[in-house]
Design goal:
Helix content: 40-55%
Distance between the termini: 37 Å
Bound molecules: iron/sulfur cluster
Strand content: 5-15%
Mean pLDDT: 91
Shape: globular
Number of strands: 9
Structural class: alpha/beta
Low-confidence stretches: none
Order of helices and strands: HEHEHEHEHHEHEHHEEEHHHH
Largest sheet: 9 strands, mixed
Radius of gyration: 19 Å
Length: about 375
């Protein structure tokens, strides 16, 4: 706890500022071409991906991380993913490491997750989240790949078996609302929940990809129902049996869903200053660094300069301050989550909002 508090204090005193949550796109490769994804624009040349040497330098340059999110492309297409995780688990000791996957490479995913969990000194909560945009044919149509849904389910079943031997593994299902899947997404969520394969459910909303713009294309009423459903399902989720962390996760998810709903409804700033560029950032598979996924990744490249120098350059500090001063807003779950996790006032707002909800519910 002490290293996290120390970095939190440094970030608030502005010397030096370093992220406590980091999103890393470990690869730009994926076997699917989902209709809602920008994968066609990604660079799929594996030779430009970050080498383990660069990862080692990056991880050594970071403070103790609260959350490390590994994404892509499909992260399990990297054959050295367990080694990459090992480096972070030793160097930056993330409390939570989450890996988002489409679940297609069943055997490889199960083998790699097993290796990660058996790594010496591995003490993080490992969260593997399978992504869905529907069930059966709906999911396959969006992925443009017959059988994608069944493969993801068989991966979830095998990971659940692994979870029975490793309490530090959690397996979740992330349900994404995209334009066109509103009518069936709730029944899809119910069917996924009924399979009893997942420790938790979460929800993503397809967004337009611009700051100062929430999610105008989405049916907000369905969005609200879906968010209530996933919250109710995830109520008893405990991270590594840690009741406080699990409870905080639940309270924050509720608060965050309400905040996203209000942001989408009003398309205005809702009083939570974004931590992008300060407590959370993004590193792309080719080394480019940016404050968040919706702004250009033009802050520098970790292949050329240490991350801490990039993050603390006067230009990037100024850009990050401007984002806060201009009250930038969007509906990106990861950045809202980090902003609530890493700032005192949003944290207190989250607790008091939940208290009011509970009191109103008990009347
Ligand atoms: S599985 Fe994920 S990374 Fe691959 S195309 Fe679909 S949304 Fe994009
Ligand atoms: S609110 Fe934060 S995450 Fe969203 S676009 Fe602005 S800086 Fe990026």
């Amino acid at each position: 706890m002490i290293p996290y508090l120390r970095q939190w204090a440094k970030n608030n005193a502005w010397k030096p500022v370093l992220p406590m949550e980091l999103i890393i796109f470990v690869t730009g490769r994926c076997m699917f071409r989902c209709k809602h994804c920008l994968i066609e624009k990604f660079d799929s040349d594996s030779s430009r991906e970050l080498s383990l040497e660069t990862i080692e330098r990056l991880a050594s340059d970071l403070p103790a991380l609260a959350v490390l999110m590994l994404t892509g492309g499909e992260p399990f297409m990297r054959n050295d993913l367990p080694e990459l995780v090992h480096i972070f688990s030793i160097r930056s000791r993330p409390k939570v490491i989450s890996i988002a996957t489409n679940g297609f490479l069943t055997n490889k995913i199960v083998e790699m997750v097993g290796r990660i969990l058996s790594l010496p000194e591995f003490s993080s909560q490992l969260v593997v989240t399978l992504t869905f945009e529907g069930i059966g044919q709906d999911h396959d149509n969006n992925r443009r790949f017959a059988g994608a849904y069944e493969k993801a389910l068989s991966t979830a079943k095998r990971l659940k078996e692994l979870q029975e031997r490793h309490s530090s593994l959690a397996v979740g299902a992330n349900i994404t609302m995209i334009p066109g899947n509103e009518k069936r997404i709730l029944s899809a969520a119910r069917e996924l929940a009924g399979k009893s394969l997942f420790s938790f459910l979460s929800q993503n909303v397809y967004r337009e990809g611009r700051p100062f713009n929430a999610c105008a294309q989405i049916n907000l009423s369905v969005c609200r129902q879906l968010s209530r459903f996933v919250q109710a399902y995830s109520r008893s989720f405990k991270m590594s049996g840690n009741l406080i962390l699990g409870r905080w996760h639940y309270l924050k998810e509720r608060f965050q869903a309400n905040l996203i709903e209000r942001t989408c409804h009003t398309n205005t700033y809702q009083g939570i200053t974004c931590e992008a560029g300060r407590g959370i950032g993004v590193v792309y598979h080719d080394g480019r660094v940016g404050p968040c996924e919706l702004l250009p990744a033009d802050w520098g490249n970790v292949k050329e300069r240490p991350f801490s120098q990039i993050w603390n350059s006067s230009t990037n500090r100024r850009l990050s301050d401007q984002l806060r001063l201009r009250r930038c807003f969007c509906s990106h779950e990861c950045f809202i989550s980090a902003s609530v996790n890493l700032q005192l006032i949003p944290m207190l707002s989250c607790l008091s909002w939940n208290l009011v909800q509970t009191m109103q519910g008990s009347r």
